[in-house]
């Protein structure tokens, strides 16, 4: 991890540590339903990865492990990685409570290869992950380092266009560059999962265009199988979205996609 970004990562870690308790109690994460067997996975990743039974899976930036444990319930041998020690602590607690066999590691995702030495059939990451990283080249290299030959990388993520807007104003306003290199700092009350929470979120982030994402993976030796863009998101975290079908949200005019997904092989 670069010393240049250490202060940013430390601030983000403190915020995510504080988010864990708020999120675990939120309707957004619906922990009670999850404990009773409800999967936290969405249709895009389920369709893309299919039957994971018997496969090893590395989940990057796993928060408190719901998706990791959902893959584990489907028969995958999972390892989840996250920056937040409190998130990993709760993930381990849930793993034990549910009688699953996932492993969890607390570290900066860019340092994963220092802490996780295994190779995996699948590396997975999703929804609000790469914006926390200043440079995707080491991210792409780490993914290649952790995949078995012929292994699959899959990501589904919010589209870079949605991060061009400032959502802290009354009306979303286009403010940031599509592939802006300068760090973006935001400070606001609550979180996407509970806007009424009393905590103050202090966050440093970076914007990455699709070209940067694809190039970081291909430069690391992965072959891109597809890049898809989607109008519909399973998360209603941006203002003005409308529910077109149950549990799926889109913008009123569909002028730009909300998500993209990449599947690649080593």
Automatic annotation (TrEMBL):
Its EC number is 2.1.1.-. It comes from the Bacteria. Gene3D superfamilies: Vaccinia Virus protein VP39. Pfam families: Methyltransf_11. Keywords: Methyltransferase, Transferase. Residues 59-154 form the Methyltransferase type domain. GO terms for molecular function: methyltransferase activity. InterPro entries: Methyltransf_11 (IPR013216), SAM-dependent_MTases_sf (IPR029063). One of its GO terms (biological process) is methylation. This is Class I SAM-dependent methyltransferase.
């Amino acid at each position: 991890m670069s010393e240049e970004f250490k202060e940013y990562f430390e601030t983000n870690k403190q915020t995510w540590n504080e988010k864990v308790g708020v999120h675990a109690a939120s309707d957004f994460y619906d922990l009670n339903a999850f404990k009773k067997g409800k999967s936290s996975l969405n249709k895009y990743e389920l369709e893309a990865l299919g039957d994971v039974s018997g496969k090893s899976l590395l989940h990057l930036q796993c928060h408190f492990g719901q998706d990791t444990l959902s893959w584990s319930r489907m028969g995958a041998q999972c390892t989840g990685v996250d920056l937040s020690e409190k998130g990993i602590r709760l993930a381990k607690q849930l793993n034990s409570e549910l009688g699953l066999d996932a492993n969890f590691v607390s570290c900066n995702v860019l340092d994963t290869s220092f802490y996780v030495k295994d190779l995996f059939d699948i590396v997975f990451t999703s929804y609000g992950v790469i914006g926390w990283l200043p440079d995707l080249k080491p991210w792409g290299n780490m993914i290649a380092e952790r995949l078995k030959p012929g292994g699959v990388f899959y990501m589904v993520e919010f589209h870079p266009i949605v991060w061009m807007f400032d959502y802290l104003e009354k009306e979303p306003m286009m403010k940031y560059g599509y592939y802006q290199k300068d760090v973006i700092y935001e400070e606001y009350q609550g979180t996407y999962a509970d806007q009424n929470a009393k905590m103050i979120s202090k966050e440093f982030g970076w914007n990455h265009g699709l070209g940067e994402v694809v190039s970081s993976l291909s430069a690391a030796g992965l072959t891109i199988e597809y890049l898809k863009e989607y109008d519909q998101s399973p998360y209603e975290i941006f203002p003005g979205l409308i529910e077109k079908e149950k549990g799926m949200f889109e913008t009123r005019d569909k002028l730009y996609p909300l998500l993209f997904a990449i599947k690649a092989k080593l």
